[in-house]
Amino acid sequence: MIKAGIIGSTGYAGQELVRILLGHKDAEIVWYGSRSYVDEAYSSVYGNMFEIVDAACMDDNLDELCKKADVIFTATPQGYLAGVINENILENAKVIDLSADFRLKDTDVYEKWYKIDHKAKQYIDEAVYGLCELNRESIKGARLVANPGCYTTTSILSLYPLVREHMVDTDTIVIDAKSGTSGAGRSAKLANLYCEVNESIKAYGVTTHRHTPEIEEQLGYAFLAGNTSKDLSTVGQECISDKNAGGNPLLINFTPHLVPMNRGILATCYAKLNDKYTYDDVKAVYDKYYKNEQFIRVLNKGVMPETRWVEGSNYVDINFVIDERTGRIVVCGALDNMVKGAAGQAVQNMNLIFGLPENEGLLMPPVFP
Amino acid sequence: MIKAGIIGSTGYAGQELVRILLGHKDAEIVWYGSRSYVDEAYSSVYGNMFEIVDAACMDDNLDELCKKADVIFTATPQGYLAGVINENILENAKVIDLSADFRLKDTDVYEKWYKIDHKAKQYIDEAVYGLCELNRESIKGARLVANPGCYTTTSILSLYPLVREHMVDTDTIVIDAKSGTSGAGRSAKLANLYCEVNESIKAYGVTTHRHTPEIEEQLGYAFLAGNTSKDLSTVGQECISDKNAGGNPLLINFTPHLVPMNRGILATCYAKLNDKYTYDDVKAVYDKYYKNEQFIRVLNKGVMPETRWVEGSNYVDINFVIDERTGRIVVCGALDNMVKGAAGQAVQNMNLIFGLPENEGLLMPPVFP
Amino acid sequence: MIKAGIIGSTGYAGQELVRILLGHKDAEIVWYGSRSYVDEAYSSVYGNMFEIVDAACMDDNLDELCKKADVIFTATPQGYLAGVINENILENAKVIDLSADFRLKDTDVYEKWYKIDHKAKQYIDEAVYGLCELNRESIKGARLVANPGCYTTTSILSLYPLVREHMVDTDTIVIDAKSGTSGAGRSAKLANLYCEVNESIKAYGVTTHRHTPEIEEQLGYAFLAGNTSKDLSTVGQECISDKNAGGNPLLINFTPHLVPMNRGILATCYAKLNDKYTYDDVKAVYDKYYKNEQFIRVLNKGVMPETRWVEGSNYVDINFVIDERTGRIVVCGALDNMVKGAAGQAVQNMNLIFGLPENEGLLMPPVFP
Amino acid sequence: MIKAGIIGSTGYAGQELVRILLGHKDAEIVWYGSRSYVDEAYSSVYGNMFEIVDAACMDDNLDELCKKADVIFTATPQGYLAGVINENILENAKVIDLSADFRLKDTDVYEKWYKIDHKAKQYIDEAVYGLCELNRESIKGARLVANPGCYTTTSILSLYPLVREHMVDTDTIVIDAKSGTSGAGRSAKLANLYCEVNESIKAYGVTTHRHTPEIEEQLGYAFLAGNTSKDLSTVGQECISDKNAGGNPLLINFTPHLVPMNRGILATCYAKLNDKYTYDDVKAVYDKYYKNEQFIRVLNKGVMPETRWVEGSNYVDINFVIDERTGRIVVCGALDNMVKGAAGQAVQNMNLIFGLPENEGLLMPPVFP
């Protein structure tokens, strides 16, 4: 039985981790960390867990927790993990970080977009970017996994085959993403009140959203990997060790939108095709990379992803349309930001690290309606 | 492995049965019945099931299906099952009916409220009302189970201990219930369009909703059972065999409301207390009946049920407040109409019939947010 | 041109006052009061008012404001107005208070339910309860109007004819009310976050909601008024001057619920009829009181109120069903909590005070969908 | 008093026309046309109009209606008006068509995208495209106005200054649009049921939506008009008369999305800038075209449009961000699809035709929340 501790278990992503781990037959939760609710019953913070979780929330203390847990999930604000991580922790437990602290290999980029100093640069090389389908082998041996962002997972998986196969002009990529409101977290902000979000849609963080460089970095690696058999993590390492070889080969426009719904992300991606590819040409490439991926569903021709069809599950639904008139391809990807976009992918990473079947605890079908 | 066939698998309740049975380790679905989508891929009707369910929808034919299935779930319109049921079917398979055909012991009442002739009165005696917590033993031996309505389950479970213990004046019961829109089914009616339901609440079927007599009948049995150890089903049989002994000892006001949300039912129940009971008095009675019921959660003092805390799960949350000023008790019950109010309870009935652990396949925690 | 000042103009009710007064041809807003946003452009707080309202928010100062304004609306927390009101203010301007400070004639009741000391008891006698349809004449001469609560307006208007005509047993009244989320105000509380409210319904303040005594007091006056021609305000005065003569002749159960929608209140009211009244009997009584009330719409037989049909307007929709089986009547009332339940009624009060047509600025049809 | 008849008054757009015209002091509705509800009270179809509209629905008959009305609004399915329009009608009444029949000057394009034959090509030249801000003078003298589509109005107004001033590369335009569900109309389709739309977002009509050629045609005219003083309508006429001179100078990608809300459209538009323009450069151009347009609000720097801020009103909110990293500009436009996207603009056109103040009946502030 894998002992799991959760730092930040009272945020939305932390609570989703709880929900998923409760259904995982080889893991048990040993620590419900929470700064805000120390000593309060977990089920008083999340009423759904009444009579299911008996534990009280505990103070966050990674140095202690690491001795009791085999794996620690940190569902914490940016900067927290980088501020406390050390060798003691990593020697005692695997760490899967749901924050952005170790996602970006280029700390200059991190500090520029996040506007905080990175306090644990010595672990950036070691950290593996936990996009399971693209970095499976590297994740298996990792001590520290940087679980990708929700927008990022959707965007990268949607475009990855096209970028890796150099089928699109990387200078023309536009990603217009839409997210449910749980992505904004559980803090009491006026902008997230029911009446402020309901019956409205808006773009936010236009040209400045922090998931932008994460998408660019990973798609950049995909582009550089090209027709080699390298995974993205390996390319990332090479770019770091030889900065000149890397650099960022692509810049994108990424625009997130807030949608009046609880869960779900839809990314609508646009790019110019490098050639007059047919549907079959493109389908073949998506099949090449995703045919054996059980959590990636490339839909039937003509069926576009809808977030309702993935809610509560670890699936990513993807499909595309080629516009012969404009020479562009439109790719849509949909996932549940709480599952494949956060807690589900974190558990998928745990499964990889501990040598379990990758889908363990993750086979729940989407809940509809 | 229990072989399960579903008639009406493309309605909302039918689809929820599919979702739950897919996670049940001792059952497999052998037949996806559907009148409207014969030969179409099930996953083209419900996109969430893409790459999960490969089967196509099949024509409904209970006489054939009963030979292939150990249990048949009928999630069909009123009158369907009564029109086709026969001894051949019941000898070959257990039948769990999610419609109202066999819920009411009094067929006069059925015909009056449903305005259709009952075509299988010979099976009414045999049918067991499948409210698991109240009729557990009778269900175990049943061939035909009448799965209760969603409003009904919420209302009965909320008031049952008070009525059975004769703590409330049965002439003063008012049940004001609120339901998500999935309860209205998946047919294309103008009244159920997004823009007609969204941003509004209304009462409907005021004084005429068909779940009224079902609640009255079962609470009536509870009242008659009183301090005996009989289950409701047994009392029901007695009432039938001696009409004079039964009659309906209580009449209620039941008012359903349509709420702009997908899932969930909240029943707010009012009744005059027969005495100056304290919180502890009443709590003791709820504990007496529900303490060992894992799917019934009587909440902590002061915490009232909210439908969000049961969504996607088989739980019923219940709590009450005594109003000393008016001498009334206010009891609230909440459940997910698709699960404990339909498909989950149906599976719970299946588990009872087949001697499986009652909670098998039903332990998923509520999904939030 | 009536000069209007608004204290608390940046709350939801305050903003709705702005919206309505902007369309009022005989009033202009001279002061946008706000504690939280002093010196900020009003349109930066409410983007809908961009290029419509140019003013900045000003500090609340009733003693100054009263010299610039003919009427002051206070859309402020409980206790605010009672803490500052004085003769200077009332001599200079009419005050229409949207808080509860002057709604209850019995200050013991006020202090018990609101748990704050009342600091201006000397003005309670003078204050007129601003339910326009019931206190029209008293309002016309008032200096200080207590604008009724949203739940209260719905509940009282729904039951008023029945209570005044002694057609129902006042000991059996149950009011089950449902409100959109704007009623909770614009403060940043976790419980009002989008993801906490959406896809859920709950009862709150069960047996303890502060609108309960307000409903009881006014319906009590209605009962006492009986077949006299007195308005409720007059009866209230009499009760105050002779406490023994008054007392509260009725106690009710009032249960509010939070509904995932922005606007709207639906009150479903239950009571035992004192006799076997027919539909026509009851209809005649509603017609007697409401036939000439343009903002009260008693719907056609069989059509029950829905909040969508009154959204954005000053209408109250009412209808009833008699349940012969139980001897109860079920009355539903629906209004927009922001308009007839707050700002619209406040403007209606202003019109009455200033001798304008009562409907001026209030004739906008409901907005649908 | 202008006498207005409405064909299709029981659709959502038709009903919004009713709502707006009821508040218009120089117009009265003389005919509530409806195929589906002939002889039924209008207020039984739309409960909000109870006691406001007394009329019953009448059969559609333009040849008769044109004698009773000064202006006819046709809120009808594609092909209807083209099938019945004739000289008798146009001689007797002005016609403002909310369908697409006369929006496209190129009937080949119409027949290709709409897949129906155009039956009144003789009136295409005469019809004026009713985007008021861009074709004001032409509209004033028109007999037949083609009221623009909702997506179209948002998209064109968002990009118009940039295209007309040749500031963007017209080969790089991507428009990602999001619409509330009222845009789908009031027909009972399974896809528009509450539970199918709620808690989900999807793209639809990817690369094939019929508003695409309309946007292309009008932005094409804008591009051709360039720094002349011509309005779009005039350029359109020139293109028609000399097909070679016209042709479509730009092709775009337009992707609509369905959002779980009633009203509102947000268009997020992307294009490569032709030069290193600053914020001030671009702002100057938007000011040049829109500074005096009262219904177009170019927001303050850094404030992006949200649909909630325009709901119920005739405003279009627009703003932009320049992305120096990618050389792209991101422009967002928001409006209420029922008002500026349909009925409001139709009334604005009516005002222009009849020489009334352009804003008459259209000054209602947005309703929030």
UniProtKB/TrEMBL annotation, chains A, B, C, D:
Gene3D superfamilies: Dihydrodipicolinate Reductase, domain 2, NAD(P)-binding Rossmann-like Domain
Keywords for this protein: Amino-acid biosynthesis, Arginine biosynthesis, Cytoplasm, NADP, Oxidoreductase
Reaction equations catalysed: N-acetyl-L-glutamate 5-semialdehyde + phosphate + NADP(+) = N-acetyl-L-glutamyl 5-phosphate + NADPH + H(+)
Residue numbers annotated as active site: C150
One GO-annotated biological process of the protein: L-arginine biosynthetic process
Pathway membership, UniProt: Amino-acid biosynthesis; L-arginine biosynthesis; N(2)-acetyl-L-ornithine from L-glutamate: step 3/4
Catalytic activity, EC: 1.2.1.38
Record keyword Oxidoreductase present: yes
Gene Ontology MF annotations: N-acetyl-gamma-glutamyl-phosphate reductase activity; NAD binding; NADP+ binding
Localisation per UniProt entry: Cytoplasm
PANTHER family in the record: N-ACETYL-GAMMA-GLUTAMYL-PHOSPHATE REDUCTASE, CHLOROPLASTIC-RELATED (PTHR32338:SF10), N-ACETYL-GAMMA-GLUTAMYL-PHOSPHATE REDUCTASE, CHLOROPLASTIC-RELATED-RELATED (PTHR32338)
Role this protein plays: Catalyzes the NADPH-dependent reduction of N-acetyl-5-glutamyl phosphate to yield N-acetyl-L-glutamate 5-semialdehyde.
Name of the featured protein: N-acetyl-gamma-glutamyl-phosphate reductase
Gene transcribed to yield this protein: argC
